[in-house]
Specification:
GO terms for molecular function: ATP binding; ATP hydrolysis activity. It is built from 9 helices and 10 strands. It is α/β, with parallel strands linked by helices. Strand 7, helix 6 and strand 8 form a beta-alpha-beta unit.
């Protein structure tokens, strides 16, 4: 789906990201873990064409992307962040916004919004002001707003981190079921190893702007190299 080759991101002569090769398969779920400041968000922004690398090549569905990224290409992606950033209007209007900006027919907007409200179990909140929602409700609206656009690739930047455990567990399970049914290629940044284990098929460990290990999640965690083992060990210390 997306391939990076010899990607370098530099800011003020400082190397933020250096990736010789990274490939994201169609329909896969990929986790990205690493310490704070490792470059995880920069990698996500590079993959989603929200940030242009200083050098290197990016291909999307086999086509090399050069110069400015077309609106048509950008429409294949959706991003959900830790903060839902909902607008001061109804839940329905928040979910419908992207479709309205794309000038979709009113009937199509209504059908798609109602479908995704039902899918995320928030139909009963349709008329409620989005700023009056709980954290879990707001994140469900945030994800429905992303999925209603029918993205080929969904990027998630710690969308569950601010939620309590029961709310988080239910949302992750529901979202995983949705991703499996829609076969949406998904990238998840998370600091939570439990989220990564449950949600992702593949895992990239990013340290100091470099991918130190990448492969099937179970393989990476059961056969970590020295740098991955050290990182996971520090994570376990913080947790326990």
């Amino acid at each position: 789906m997306i391939t990076l080759e010899n990607i370098l991101v530099k800011k003020k002569d400082k190397t933020i990201l250096s990736v010789p090769h990274f490939s994201l398969s169609k329909g896969s779920t990929c986790g990205i873990m690493g310490p704070n400041g490792a470059g995880k968000s920069t990698l996500l922004k590079t993959l989603s064409f929200l940030e242009r690398p200083s050098s290197g090549t990016i291909t999307f569905q086999g086509a090399e992307i050069t110069g400015s990224v077309s609106l048509e290409t950008r429409r294949h992606f959706a991003v959900a962040l830790q903060q839902s950033l909902l607008l001061d209007t109804s839940v329905y209007q928040n979910v419908a916004l992207g479709l309205k900006l794309r000038n979709r027919p009113k009937r199509e907007i209504r059908e798609r919004v109602e479908f995704w409200l039902q899918t995320f179990s928030i139909s009963h909140l349709s008329k409620k002001n989005a700023l009056q929602l709980s954290g879990g409700e707001a994140q469900r609206v945030n994800l429905a707003r992303a999925m209603v656009l029918g993205p080929k690739v969904l990027f998630l930047d710690e969308p569950f981190s601010a939620l309590d455990f029961p709310t988080k567990s239910k949302l992750i399970k529901d979202l995983k079921d949705i991703i499996n049914k829609t076969e949406t290629t998904t990238v998840l940044i998370s600091h939570d190893l439990m989220e990564i284990k449950y949600f992702t098929e593949n895992l990239a460990i990013l340290i100091d702007g470099q991918i130190k290990q990448y492969g099937a999640t179970a393989d990476v965690l059961s056969n970590p190299n020295a740098e991955t083992a050290a990182f996971i060990g520090e994570w376990n210390k913080m947790l326990y």
